[in-house]
Amino acid sequence: MNMELIVLGINYLIILLIIFLVYKVANKIANSYKEKNKRELDLIQMSMSTSLDEMTQTIDTFINESIQEFAVMNNIQDSKYINTELEQELRNFVMESVSGRISINLLNKLRLFYKEDIIPDLIAKKIFLAVTAYTAINNTGATNKKNK
Known about the structure:
The chain is mainly alpha-helical and 148 residues long. Helix content is 84%, strand content 0%. It starts with a helix and ends with a helix.
């Protein structure tokens, strides 16, 4: 009886081992197909012709749309003076908005032209300059209206 239990236990152990090995092999095959598909998709995305100008224009469009969205949401007209606190709110809003809009595809294409670690700095500088220019233009108009 003891011998039968030992043989039965060994059989169950062998079955569990076979199931585990089949799982590992199937998982490895699935991961290799997933990686292959990802590489093919990346290759297709990268092969799409895109110039650096088109990508920077797209980012500039995201920035300008975000600035206009903030201006509408906060009722900023040409006559409203933008103080430093409001300018910082605008900058934060644009940063969040643009980072949410930029796709992985656009980032991958930017990596063709720039090192990966400087891309966020480049985008942040573009946002800083655009918000500063918007604020300066808006505040000049607000100051001129006050002087009239």
